[in-house]
Amino acid sequence: MSDYQSSKSKKNTFFGGAAILAASSLMVKGIGALFRIPLGNILPDEVMGDYNAAYNIYNFFLTISTAGLPVALSKTISEANTLGRRNQVDKIFRVAFTTFLTLGLISFFCMTFLSRQMADVVISNPKAIHCIQSLAPSVLCVCVISSFRGFFQGHFNMWPTGVSQVIEAGCKLFLGLALAFWFVKAVNDPEMGSVGAIIGVSFGSAVALVFLVFVFLRHRRQTDRLPANDTPDSSGTILTNLLRLAIPITIGSAATSLVTLIDTKLVMSQLTTVFQTVDGLALNADGSGPALDAARGLYGIYSKTMSIYNLPFSMMVPLTACIIPAVSAALTRRDHKEAQKISESAVRVGLIVAMPMGFGLFALGGPVMGLLFPAIDTSIAGPLLSTLGLTSVFVAIQLLCNSILQANGMVNLPILAVVAGGVTKILVNYQLVGNPDIRIFGAPVGTLCCFAIIDALELFFIRRGIPKPPRFLRCVFKPLISAAVMAAAVYAVYGLLTGPVGLGNALSTLGAICVGVVVYLVLVLALRVLSKDDLALMPKGDKIAKVLHIQ
């Protein structure tokens, strides 16, 4: 096979994998919306705040256990496969699996037996203790799940990851909502509603794990027939190589989760203090009371906006999962031009998806929240979501930059960027949330400033540290123009439909969104945002290019 054919085959594998994960991600996010939106309507604002606060604890332990190792696992397996070392691949997985299991057990015991201390001290919300305990089984299952997903992604086989994610989300949807509804409506215990929802999360993780074990065993039966005569490295050497890559990534991701935890505590404590000292609400010796409940209510509204804010940049997960092994394989062959092309295409496609969603949320923050959560106070939720909509674009860029840096072996630099952004977020939130005139509205501003700083630093690192860096300006300009024009269009259409036409919020919002979709698609085609080269790298891309008349 020629170098060109090999290169094209690798790229098709990459974008084929990305397409599989993108499809599953769309399904998962759709299921997630079907879960979080009804859940937000079932649970009171205060209880939703408890749910989200416990999730921040969960995400911290999950980050420590799984942030770096799946990346390291997929990268090292991809490199070993490129060199034809099948025995090395098998041993890498065995070492990684043992490590994942150990970390999962440690996290499980911490969340089970130290939950009270975490609720009281870490997040300043003693009401979240049962939520933390209910998430403990899930963190164990997801740790083990991550070993199998990293293994398959290292083989450029993305469908087990995609299917397992859909299974996990589906179980969470049906069981979690059912239990939440039962506790709130039948048992009349709203605070246990969040626990019911979390039980669904843990059950979904367990079912996804069973599925991945089955697929892995079937894969092993097939590969055991293949010849393998390479001598694998020692377990210590493999573990050292995995940790050398994983630890910096984990530290960077853990820094983000730690900042989120600190931010949760800071926002809750600042809000509680303001309600106590300015509004005169009582606060009991054990930390409970009207001041805490008022803070929980505002944080709960913020949590509901966060569930929508997560959608745009969460679509980057398929691309980021595929970038690292694909670029690593190209660099192993010393093909820097191919690595650049893959990175640029990933950035362009990623922003084509993230930018219209982020700008759309900015333009229709209040109407969207009113549509999804009819009982919510849109005067609070609307501005929060609008600010978070812009923030989601910056988060998407950060995820793409992180993957590019990690694939090029620059795993330490993102840590510096995250620390700088995290410090910025804490300082901004401390000043703004503690201001009686701003309060919860300061929280998304701090997040926006945080990721703006991170993006600026990581783009600088990419520009200076990679021999053939992706040309970001070329990738960003056309999607930015298209998204900005679309946002202006949806804002104007919504105003027209609610004003002169006299339609209600629901119909006006849906109408504006439909117009926005059409406007954006027209602009993407007219401005030729997607190049023929981008489409040629995707499954059936040549046919898509012909249909869209892209030269």
Could you please describe the fold and organization of this structure?
By secondary structure, the protein is mainly alpha-helical. The chain has a domain at about 10-265. It has 20 helices and no strands.
Topology (elements, then pairings):
Blueprint: H1 3-42, H2 45-66, H3 69-82, H4 86-113, H5 115-122, H6 129-154, H7 159-186, H8 190-223, H9 235-277, H10 290-314, H11 317-332, H12 336-363, H13 365-372, H14 378-407, H15 413-433, H16 442-465, H17 472-498, H18 505-526, H19 532-536, H20 541-548
Helix pairs in contact: 1-7, 1-10, 1-11, 2-4, 2-6, 2-8, 2-9, 2-10, 3-4, 3-6, 3-9, 3-11, 4-6, 4-9, 5-6, 6-8, 7-8, 9-10, 9-15, 10-12, 10-14, 11-12, 11-14, 12-14, 12-17, 13-14, 13-18, 14-16, 15-16, 17-18
Which labels suit this protein?
551 residues, mainly alpha, disordered N terminus
Largest β-sheet summary = none
Provide the β-strand percentage band. Answer: under 5%
N-end to C-end Cα span: 27 Å
Mean pLDDT: 82
| Overall radius of gyration | 24 Å
Q: Which oligomeric form is depicted?
A: single chain
Q: How many H/I helices?
A: 20
Question: How is this structure best summarized?
Answer:
With 551 residues, this protein is mainly alpha-helical. Helix content is 83%, strand content 0%.
